[in-house]
Amino acid sequence: MHETHLIQPIIEGISQHAKKEGAKAVSKVRLKIGEFTGVKEDSFKETFSSLAKGTMLEGSELELTFFPGSRVEVISFDIK
After folding, report:
1. pLDDT at residue 16 greater than cutoff 90
2. Looking at residues 37-47, what average pLDDT do you find?
3. Strand 72-79 vs strand 26-34: parallel, antiparallel, or unpaired?
4. Cβ(12)–Cβ(45) below 8 Å
5. Structural domain of 54
6. For a FRET experiment, which of 2, 4, 19, 62 has its CA 20 to 30 Å from that of 46?
7. 72 C-beta neighbours (distance < 10 Å), count
């Protein structure tokens, strides 16, 4: 799972911010993914879902936008 090292810090960072806001859960996450990362959308979503189990992000909708670049950026996330 090549994506694990990209996704784990995202889940941890969003969880920390959401907790500070008093959220019970995160319902949607929007990310921009650089095409040069080698990430495949289906694999990324599957890995994200697996790593999010047991966290505030479990079951959250994941919206991905690809761009010519080599990084992954958190655009926004919705909390409940």
Report:
1. yes
2. 95
3. antiparallel
4. no
5. 4-79
6. 19
7. 18
Its pTM surpasses 0.70 = yes
Please state, in angstroms and rounded to a whole number, the distance separating the CA atoms of residues 59 and 66.
22
Give the pLDDT band of residue 1 (cuts 50, 70, 90). Answer: low
Q: CA of 42: how far to CAs of 14, 21, 30, 47, in Å?
A: 21, 30, 15, 9
Strand, helix or coil for residue 17: helix
Q: Which CATH number characterizes residue 66's domain?
A: 3.30.2320.50
Averaged over 63-69, what is the pLDDT?
Answer: 97
For the chain, how many structural domains are there in total? 1
Question: Exposed (0-12), middle (13-18) or buried (19+): which is 36, by Cβ within 10 Å?
Answer: exposed
Has residue 2 got a pLDDT over 80? no
